[in-house]
Fold this sequence. Notes:
This protein has 274 residues and is α/β, with parallel strands linked by helices. It folds into three domains: 4-37; 43-92; 121-273, Nucleotidyltransferase, domain 5 (2-Layer Sandwich), CATH 3.30.420.10. Helices cover 46% and strands 14% of the residues. The chain contains eleven helices and five strands, in the order H-H-H-H-H-H-E-E-E-H-E-H-E-H-H-H. It has helices spanning 4-18, 22-29, 33-37, 43-59, 65-75, 82-91, 161-175, 192-200, 217-229, 239-255, 267-273; strands at residues 121-130, 136-144, 149-156, 180-184, 204-208. Helix 8 (192-200) links the parallel strand 4 (180-184) and strand 5. Helix 1 (4-18) packs antiparallel against helix 2 (22-29). The longest helix is centred in the N-terminal third of the chain and has 17 residues, at 43-59. This is Integrase.
Amino acid sequence: MVKPSLRKEMAQNVVAQMGVSIRFACEVFGISQSCYRHQAKLANENAVIADWLLCLTTAHKGWGFGLCFDHLRNVKKFEWNHKRVYRIYRELELNLRIKPKRRIKRDKPDALSVPTAINQVWSMDFMSDSLQDGRSIRTFNVIDDYNREALCIDVDFSMPSQRVIRSLEQVVEWRGKPAAIRYYDGPVYVSQVLINWANKNQITLMYIQPGKPTQNAYVERFNRTVRHKWLALHLFETIEQAQYLATDWLWTYNNERPNSAIGRVPPRYLLDAA
């Protein structure tokens, strides 16, 4: 099978050398006249697209084509067609391996409430990892359910109630107070110290049922991104290094990484538009 580009080239040669009409040459070689007359985009612009794709995939190793294109279109405001960008993406062989999904039969969960403004509902959760020397560490993650903005990722060896409250107070200081906080009923969260703090600040505590992570789906989805796009890419030597990398990644997540759940723009864009 001869590619259309080669058939176009042969038709142009026939028209130039034998003096036949463009219509006749197109019929003979099986191409349209619009294909014959089409002028390719400038190669230097394709080189710019390639440079951007290489920069993005080097800086963000977990980004596939979707995130790269959304970043170029919605963050950098380029107007390149997605088919053109994808063609160059494939030519550079930047494709990520897509792991097949297992089909798991689940009961239909209750619909998750969708906030309509910032600070209506926050979600928080813990994650576990380890330092290079084997010592276990924990992260305390908080997001705003409205725009999926990550409000904090605090890293420490343990996260008792007082440590959780200190982290929440630091976020409240610059972000404002939430009307409610959603979380699971773990030992830290059901402690009387945290309950007293919430009552003092007039914050509603929303417990999810044991074994029902879908009731806290916003932060669970965020946790998956944290695991695959940050934790799994680093070996931490110290708590300080882990916290520095967490803070650095948090800024990228909020300001540069498009989020498909909120219109393929970074969380801060939705906050600025509110």
